[in-house]
Amino acid sequence: MSRPLSRPARVLLIDHAPVFGGAESFLFDLASGLDRDRFSPIIVTMPDSPVLERFRATGIPAYTTPMPRLNRSPYFFWRLWRAGVQLARLARGLRADLMHTFTARTHLVGAVAARQVGIPLLWRICDDTLPDWLLRLFSRVPRHIVSVSRWLTSRYPHIRFDGFVPDGARPPRAITQAEARAALCLAPDDLIIAHVGRLVRWKGQAVLLHALADLYPHISHLRGLFVGGWSADDDVSGPLGGGAPYLKELQALAAGLNLEDRVTFTGFLSEPALGYAAADIVTHTSILPEPFGRVVIEAMLAGRPVVATDAGAIPEIITPGESGVLVPVNHPSALANALTQLIGDPGLRTRLGESAQRRVADEFSLDKMVERMQSAYQSALAKS
Predict the structure, then answer these.
(1) Span of 132-141, 211-220, 274-283, 339-348 with lowest mean pLDDT
(2) Contact 98, 380 (CB under 8 A)
(3) Residue ranges of domains in the chain
(4) Cβ contacts of residue 81 below 8 Å, gap of 6+?
(5) Collapsing DSSP states into helix, strand and coil, what is residue 124?
(6) Residue 85: phi, psi to the nearest 5?
(7) What is the rounded distance in angstroms from the CA atom of residue 247 to the CA atom of residue 286?
(8) What confidence score (pLDDT) does residue 358 get?
(9) Which residue among 113, 121, 190, 377 sits deepest, i.e. has the most Cβ atoms within 10 Å of its Cβ?
(10) Percent of the chain with pLDDT over 90
(11) What pLDDT score does 1 carry?
């Protein structure tokens, strides 16, 4: 058992941030919400992080250190050890009391650093991309391991989890539907079905396009709204890739489905609340299981009815028929049927949206997320 600290515990929040995505949103919200009488956050990211200045603008101290990619190169372990040494040196110089990592890359660098400097390490596992062979080598190092969802714990049967800390949603900026549509150059009387998510193939934007093609002949004022950006690393083939080539694929698909004049691709929005506010219905169409589903709880907190795929952690968030609608994965006709029901019943849309708001406020609020994370920090520090 460690001695009680006479000052707030210094927590290094270690992230590699190729783009401002879900992990970075969590980090940003967490660092802003921590009780400063108990915890003092310090952000550590890569030197070329595209969100470094955004972190620094919060006034929270931010530092950089290398984070090597995960691969089977013969030089990988050398690069990993060197990055761990640099992180350990930084942690020692900052007199850190705890290191908190968010991604597969930072979990490993943090593990190397923790073994060298003796600072307790907490892993919050947010996805299922950590290779099993590396997991077996490094998962005994962290003092405390939590996951973002119960579903994700089932993906790592060899890990002893100490609990789970789901994301929390920040209340959206107050904006009317009319204001949001004007800002996005959308017609005020269109019926808008939105998809919010990174522009990569596994997020399933193509599924929504096919569903819209089924609906459009019967609903002439229908419009699809696709909100989401990408990073340069996404410009690859395969389900995990996307980016600019994928945008061209989607635009070509829309043209082939006679939807080119009925869909809008906004790219990255610094204020995603615009997308939720503009929409009548929000969809989640990932063709691979979501480890959590931050977009889903954000849309729910905005009071929008959500139609989402029944996979991964989404059933932990949505109770079908009560706080949203679940449909099979990669099933455009089922999605179209669910949308048809909601389009034809405005009262149902209102009831689902209001129930969704209450569900998120009760279980996935920002305050509850910070409270759960602070409890995990306290437990990790107590084990040191």
Answers:
(1) 132-141
(2) yes
(3) 9-167+366-382, 177-363
(4) 112
(5) strand
(6) -60, -45
(7) 16
(8) 96
(9) 113
(10) 75
(11) 45
**Residues 259/156, Cβ–Cβ less than 8 Å:** no
CA distance 5 to 2: 9
Q: What is the pLDDT of residues 50-69, one digit of tens each?
A: 778 888 888 899 999 988 88
Q: What is the pTM of this model?
A: 0.90
Residue 319: name the closest of 362, 371, 373 by CA.
362
pLDDT digits (tens, 9 = 90+) for 112-162: 999 999 999 999 999 888 888 888 889 999 999 999 999 999 999 888 899
Query: What CATH number has the domain spanning 177-363?
Result: 3.40.50.2000
List the one residue out of 277, 278, 306 whose CA is nearest residue 293. Answer: 306
Are 9-167+366-382 and 177-363 the same fold in CATH? Answer: yes
From the candidate CATH numbers 3.90.550.10, 3.40.50.2000, 3.10.620.30, 3.40.630.70, the one assigned to the domain spanning 9-167+366-382: 3.40.50.2000
Q: Return d(Cα 97, Cα 38) in angstroms, integer.
A: 12
Mean residue pLDDT across the chain? 92
Say how far apart CA 301 and CA 30 lie, in whole Å.
18
- The letter for the amino acid at 56 is R
Paired strand residues for 327: 309
Look at residue 165 and tell me whether its pLDDT is greater than 60. yes
**Burial category of 54 from C-beta neighbours within 10 Å (exposed 0-12, middle 13-18, buried 19 and up):** middle
pLDDT at position 4, please?
A: 61
Residue 21 has pLDDT above 80, yes or no: no
197 contacts 228 by C-beta, under 8 angstroms: yes
Q: In the numeric block, which tokens belong to residue 144?
A: 């405390």
Residue 215 to residues 260, 273, 324, 336, 346: CA-CA distances in angstroms?
14, 26, 20, 7, 17
Indicate the angle between helix axes 346-363 and 294-301, nearest 10 degrees: 110
